[in-house]
Amino acid sequence: MKVLLIEDNEELASSISDFLGREGYICEVSYNVRDAQDKLISFQYDCVLLDIMLPDGNGLDILSFMRMERIQSSILILSAKNSLDDKVAGLEEGADDYLTKPFHLPELHARLRAIYRRKMLNGSNIIAFNEISLNIDTLEARVNGHLLDMTRKEFDLLLYFLVNKNRVLSRQSIAAHLWGDYTDNLANFDFVYQHVKNIRKKISAASGTDYIGTVYGLGYKFNTSKQ
Amino acid sequence: MKLVDKYTLWFLSITLLILPLNSFITYRSIKNEIDKAAVERLKHVNTRVAEQLRKGERPGDYSQGCKIDVMPVSALPGEPFEITEKDVTHDPELKDNDRKITVTSYHNINGQYYKITSGDYVTRSEQILLGLRTSIMWKLIILIGLVVLTARLISRFVLAPFYGTMKKLQGFTLKSKKRIELPNTTTKEFRELNCFVKKMTDKAIDDYASLKEFSENASHELQTPLAIIRSKLELLSESDINDHQAKLIVDMQNSVEKLTRINRSLVLLSKLENKEFETQETVNLSRYAESTLRSFSDLVQLKALTLRSQIEENVEVKLHASLVDILLNNLISNAIRHNIPAGSIEVLLNRDVLIVKNTGRPPGCPPEEMFQRFKKGTHCNNSIGIGLSIVKQICDLNAFAIQYHYTSGLHIIVINFPSGKASSKLLQNDERYLHEKIQL
Lengths: 227, 440
What we know:
Chain A is an alpha/beta fold. In chain A, 41% of the residues lie in helices and 24% in strands. Chain A folds into 2 domains: 2-119, Rossmann fold (3-Layer(aba) Sandwich); 126-222, Orthogonal Bundle (Arc Repressor Mutant, subunit A), CATH 1.10.10. In chain A, helix 2 runs parallel beside helix 3 (59-68) and helix 6 (152-163) packs across helix 8. Chain A is elongated, with a radius of gyration of 19 Å. Chain A starts with a strand and ends in a 5-residue tail after the last strand. Chain B has 10 helices and 12 strands. In chain B, strand 11 and strand 12 (410-416) form a beta hairpin. Chain B is rod-shaped.
C-alpha cells in the first residue's frame, strides 16, 4: 500500500513512516501543503494521512483540493486539535476517519487497514492467519473452522492483534483501542489482562496455537513464528 | 420595586410634604391681603366721616355700608389709627361666628377732637382654610392620578433604551462572537451605560477569543510532543531490549498515558467552560445509556459485579451528543472502578432523573469536595481525579442538578433533569420577567 503522510513535525513523521515501512508500506512524507499538493497531482496514493495544522495552510484545504482534482485516495485525518468542528468538517469534506494526537502507532495502523478494506470494493471481509479467521461483517471468529464464543470487545482485540502481527502492543494502546480516549478508567490494566487471557483460553480450547505472548512488562505480541 | 414606582413615590411624598407648607403660606397671604384691604377701606370711611364733620354735616350711623361711631374726646393719643380685630361670637342675627375688623381714628376737627370708629365683617380664617382644603384635595387627587398614569406611559418611552440594552445583554453569548449593537439614545445616563456595556462585552469577546486561541494552541503544542514520545516509545519497545529496559519503557509509557489524559481532560474542561457545546437539540438518553452499559458489560463481568438497570424508554434530554458519551462513560466507569469485589451497580433512568448507585469504600473526602478537580475520593492511584469534575461541569452547563451522597456503603449520584423541554429554566424565567417589564 502506498501512503502519503502530510505532517509538519519531522520527528513524528519519521516515527510513522518507520512504523509503516516495517509493515511493508511505501510511505512518502510531505511537510507542508504545497509539497503535498505537488505529490498528490504527480503520483497516486492508496491512502493519505493528513495533519490539520500545517505551516503554510490548513489540512482541510487539502481535502477540498483533492476533491477538486478528483483524487480518490482514502483519507485519515491526524489532528492535535481535538475539536469537534474540525472532526465534523473533515468528515464532511470527504475524510474517511479521524484520529486525535497523541495516538498509538498500532491504532493508526488498524484504522488505516480498516479504511483500506472499506475502500477496496472487492476486498475480502475475512481476515485470516493460519487457522484463525475473522469475519469483520458478521463479527464471527473461527479457529480451525470452529466458531468461537467471543464478546464484541474480545473480537475487536483479536482483530487488533491480527492487524498488528509481530508488534508489541502496549496495554495503554489496547485499552485506548477498546474503550476510546475519554474514559478516565483505563489505567487499571487488569481488564486488558483479563481480555487477553480469555482470548488465549478460547483459541487454545479450539486447539489453535497460542500466538499471543507477553513481552516483559510492556504488553502483548501476536507472534507469527510460534508453532 | 420598579424604577417608575420609586420615582412616583418619591415625587408624591415630596409633594405631600410641600402641600401643607404651601397652603399655610397661601392662607397667610390671603388673610393678610383681605385684612389689609378691609383696613384701607375703613380708614377711607373714617376720613370721609371726618370730612363730613368738618363741613358741619352730621354723619349717619352707616357710611358706605359700615357701621360708624363718632365720639368727641378730650385729647389726641399718640397714634392716629388704632386697629382691632376680634371674633364676634354671638351675633344674634347671624347665629354664627364672625370676624370683625374695627378701625378707630382720631381727628382734630375745628378745634374739637373726635374719635371715629368704623367696623366691618371680613372672611373668617376657617372659611379660607376650608376653601384651601378643598382645592388642595382636588389638586392632590388630580396630581396623583396624572402622575401615576403618565409616569407609566412616559417611562415606556424614556426607559425603552434601558430595556433594549437589557434584552441585548440577555441574548449575548461569547460563543457567537457577535459584538452587540446598542441603539442610540438621547438620555445621557443610558448613553453612558451603553458605552460601558459595549466596551465590556467587546473586551470579553476579545479576551474569550485569545483564551480560546491559547487553549487550542496549548492543546496542539502539547499533543504533538506527546505523540512523538509515545510513538518513539512504541518503536523502542519493538527493538532488541532486555527486561530492565522494558521496565523503564513501561514506566515512561504509563506517565505519558497519564499526561495525555490530563491534557485531554483539561482541554475538554476549558471547552466546556467556554460553552462550546451549547445545543438546542435533544438526544435519546435511554439509547445512549443502554449502549454504554453494554459496552461496559465486559468490565462488569470481569470484576464480578452485579449490574441492575431500570431504564425508561425514549427519555429525551437537551444535551450535546458528544457530551452524552463522556457523561455516561465517566459515571459508569467510576462506578466500576470505585467498586468492591462482588459489589453491585444500579442504574435508574427516567424522564426526571438519572441515578447511579454503586457499592464502594467510604470516600476519603467530604462529599461536597467530590466534584473538585484532582480530588481523589478513594484509594485509587491510577485515577487522575478529573472524571467527576467533568461530569459536574456538563451538568452545570445544561442546568442539570447533580448531587452526591454516601449512605450505608453506597455511592449515589443523582442527576435531576430540568422539567419540561427547557434546558435552562432559569434563563427562560428571566426572559419572561424581562418581557413583562418591557410590556409594562
